[in-house]
Give the backbone structure.
Amino acid sequence: MRVSQPDSYYVTTPIYYVNAEPHIGNAYTTVAADVLNRYHKLFGYRSYFLTGTDEHGSKVAESAEKAGLSPQELCDRNSQVFKDSWKKMNIEYDKFIRTTDPEHEEIVRKFIQVLHDKGYIYQGEYSGLYCTGCEKFITDKELTEDGLCPVHLTKPQQVREKNYFFKLSKFLGPLKEKIESGDLEIMPASRRNEVLGLFKQNLDDFSLSRERVKWGVSLPFDESQVTYVWIDALINYISAPKYPDGPDFDRLWNKSTVVHLMAKDILKFHCIYWPAMLMAADVKLPDKIVIHGYLNLDSQKISKSLGNIIKPDDMIGWFGVDASRFLVLNMCAFGSDGDIRIEDFYTKYNSDLANNYGNLVSRTLKMIDRNLDGILPQPSGDDMPEIIKDGYETVGKVRDRLVDVQIKMATDEIIAYLSKLNTYFDEKKPWVLAKEGASNELGKVLYNVSYGIALSSALLSPYLTEKTATVLECLFGKKIPPNVVLQELGHALGFSDKIEIPKENLFPRLSMPKELETKAEAEADNLIGIEDFAKVKLQVAEVKAAEKVPGADKLLKLQLEIGRELRQIVAGIAEYYEPESLLGKKIIVVTNLKPVKLRGIESNGMLLAAQKNKKLTLLTVDSDIPSGAKIS
Ligand code: MSP
C-alpha cells in the first residue's frame, strides 16, 4: 500500500500454543492478519499469509501428560482444532506452519548452527525462576507478593542448568538505531516507545537452549539440549518460506514487506530478540511489527481460569461468520486495549450491519427490481455525482488508514460512507419518484446508490467475505472479485441487466438475549455487577501509628499493618478522631487504589468510613480477625 515499498507483502500472526483452544483473543489477531492480507490483495498487491501453532516446550509436554497423550498426539489433535476454527472463521492463510513439522525442525537447527558458526553462541549456566505457563524465566521483581508468577499465579520453579547463550549485547546498539531510524518500523508509536524504553533496562544475553526439557528441537552442536521453545517458535517466520535458499525465501522474506502482527504480551521477543538473531545471521529484518492491545471481556482478562472465554464458534453461532469477523475487530481502536461486552456486539451488529449496510442494500435492490425491472440505466455524461466521488474518496481514506494498520479507523470510514448513502437515499425519496413516474431521475438515483453499494461491498469484502460476494453477484449478474470493482474506479460500472435481490435477508436485526438485556438495563440504572465489585480489594488493617499532618487540619497520617505488609495512608478524619484513639483499631482499607500524594505525603490506600450529618465513624470488624484478612 506504500508506493515506495515492494508490491508484495508477507503477513504473519504469532503461532499459538496448542495447549489451549482458540478464543476471541487469538481470533482477533488472526482475523486482523487475514483482513490485512485480503486488503493488500484488494488494492492490487500480492500478499502471503502465514499462521500456525507453537508445539514444543514443557507447557505442551505437561498438558499432554495430563491428557494421557504423547506430546505429538496432543499437538496433532489440537493444531487441528486451530485449523478447524480458522476454517470456520473463513481465514484464508497460505500456509499453516507447525513447529513439529520436520522441515521446520531442520531449519531451526540450520539457523542455530549459523549463529554458532559466527561465534554468537556461548556456553554458560543459568539459575533462576522459571514459569512454565509463560515458558520464560522471571525475575524476583516480577513476582507477586506471594511469590507467584503475576500472569499465571503459579509458583515458578527454581532451575539451575547448563545453557547456551546468545550474544544479544553485540546487537543492541545497531538494533536500537534501526528502530529509531524506522528501518524496523514498530507500530503504533506508543509501542515503539515502549520498545525503545526496554533498551534502557538491563537487556542481558539470553539463553536459547534448555537442558531439562525433552520436547523440543535438539541443538545441532549439542544433542543433549533442546532449543528454547521461544527461539524455535520465532524461527517459524523464516522456516515457512524455507530459509536460507528455498524457492520462496527470496521472494517472501527478502523482497516483500514483512509484517508481523501480535499483541503487546510478546513484544520483547519480537522487537528485540528476533531482530537481533536475524542481524547475527545476516538475514534481513522484518519491515513492520504491528502490536495491538488486549481484548478484555467485561473488564476482565479473557482466561480459562476465569471461565470467560468466548470461542470463535460461539460468535459464529450468535452472529454468523461474516459479522463475527467484522465485530471482533471493530469494537476498539487497533493498538489499544479493548474492553468488550457481548451486549455491545449486538448493538454494533444492528447499527452497522443490519440497519446501515444490510438495509441499504435491501431497499435499493428491491426498488430496482420492482420499479425498473432490475435494469439500471447507464449514466449519461462524464460528470460523476458527488455521492460517487465521496465513494472514491472513501477508498483513498481506507487505503491511507491501512498503511498505518489502523484497521478500525478504516472500517469507520466505510461505515460513515454507508450512512451518507442512506441519507442520500432518504433525501432523494426514490419511492416518491417511482410514484410520480419520474423514471429517469429514479434510475439515476438508484444507479448512484448502487455504485456506492458496489464500492462499499468491495471495501467491506475483507470482513464480510460471503455476504459482499452475494451483493456483488446480485449487482453484476455473476461472481465478481472485489478488486475488479475497485479497478473500475472512475468509470461507469457495468451492472447486470437483471439485478437480483438477495435470496435471504443479509443481516436480519437481532434482539439481545434476555439475560444480556437485563444486564444492560442494570448498567443503565448504574447498578454494578459482582465482577465490578470484585475489582475493589478490601482488607482488614490494624492501625500501628497515627499522627496529625502538620499544616493540614483535616488529615491524619496512619501507619497500617496489613498482613505482613506495612503501609502508610493519609485520611481526612482528623476532625473526628484523636490520633492515639486509633492505635490498635482494626479498620477496613481499599488496598488496590493507585497511590496518591496528599500534601506531599504518599497515601497508599483508602480507609472506609460512614458519614452523615457531620458525624463520621470508621468501619471496623465485628469480631477479632488478623489484619490482612480479605473482605468480600
Ligand atoms: N506461542 C507464543 C507465540 C510465538 S510467536 C513466534 C504465544 N502463543 S499464545 O497462544 O499465547 O498467543 C499469544 C497471542 O495471542 C497474543 O500475542 C495475541 O496475538 C493473541 N491473544 C491472546 N489473547 C488475546 C487477547 N485477549 N486479546 C488480543 N490478543 C490476544 O504467545
Observations:
- Residues 518 and 524 are 10 Å apart (CA to CA).
- The longest strand covers residues 121-131.
